[in-house]
Amino acid sequence: MTASERNCVRLSRWPTVAAWASAAGEARVERSPHGNEDVLVVDGIHLVAPLDPDAEAARLGEESDADHEELWAFGLGEGRAIHRLLERRGLRRLHVVGLSQRATKATLDHLDAPWRDDPRVLFHAPNEVSAGSFASSRGAHVLASAELRLAEPSALRDTILLELAAPLQARWLEGARAARAQRASDNAARFSSDGDVRALFGTRSGAHAVVAGGGPSLVPVVSGVPRSEILLVAVSTALAPLEKVGVIPDVAVMVDAHPLLRAHLEALERPEALARVPLVYAADLDPRRAAHLALPGYAEALPRRGELFCSGTVAHAAIDLAVKMGAAVVRFAGIDLAYPSDTTHAAGAALARPRTPIGMEVESVRGGAVRTDLNFLGYLRDLERYLQRHPRVRFVNGSLERTPKKGKINAKPRKERK
After folding, report:
1. Where are the alpha helices (DSSP H) in 296-393?
2. Which residues contact 3 (CB under 8 A, 6 or more apart)?
3. Which residues pair with 143 in a beta bridge?
4. Is pLDDT larger for residue 343 or for residue 330?
5. Could you report the per-residue pLDDT of 151-194, keeping only the tens digit for each?
6. How far apart are the C-alpha atoms of 201 and 221, rounded to whole Å?
């Protein structure tokens, strides 16, 4: 009987896990050339620490409170920490959640795993547990972090990564609070005299809106939609690329005060063409229609203005503005939240440049994989939650549009997908 056949028998209690693990792509599996030769190396990643894997397993076990009757193990970690947890007398149930198909298959194929036969164990594929299970089990879980490096794209993987980064992000936001408040104070005179973004709310009821971000998919999508029929809300990074194809937005949105982002406005060849376009800006910037953002530091800025959703990217605020203006359909253009073709911005954007390839990937709109980073993952998951809170609005991912050959743009967009 082959290892795969043995796995099918031993995983019969968990058919979803069996199917998930068996679908793993080809992986290079080796024994570690360092320290403990029994340690597995999958595609160049040690699944556990090679010098003293048992000490690592003991330390991981200590990270969970000893009095819990129900524990979670995220990632197999060769089963070493799992074995430690099962030694606890008071343990009644242990959830084991695979994070990487390749790591899980390698562990099951090459190592004995008696923990699978323990009746207290419930084995899960990542799509069988909620994305928030890692956070909700705080104090009652262990994490085989090496498998995050090998984990395929999933909501669970992204949630774990973002949860681990949350304390650092919170410290950064808190550290930026004072600087943001100071910029808002310096801008108080203009902020007080400018209009309120609420004047735009409800002005385009039932509209078909396109929200233009600065990502590489921007121009083909915008060029493929009849301009006269849409409400076009553009973020600052999209203004120069749109100008180069002769497209003027109905509203522009800018929320980031970083000096580099001024380059997107300075790149405009005919800024006077935008003179009549409302520019919605955050309290600590210096253009025209004032808005608060749902971020630390804005609540203290006075006078109070209409609030736009933002979880770190101007695209969030632009989408929320389109919704609050009354759009019934919101199509995304250039809101890639990834690096298609390993590029950062649409052609013609001030800061467009090749992106050094990185290891993190996310599922693309066509079902493949596209490179991304932790910031984009956070923006993506927060945007997904925002969309769920607005079930009456139809959101369409414009990146599904394809650019026909010879550079011609089809004016009739392909069938929309929610």
Report:
1. 314-324, 374-388
2. 108, 109, 110
3. 74
4. 330
5. 988 889 988 988 888 777 777 666 666 666 666 666 666 666 67
6. 25
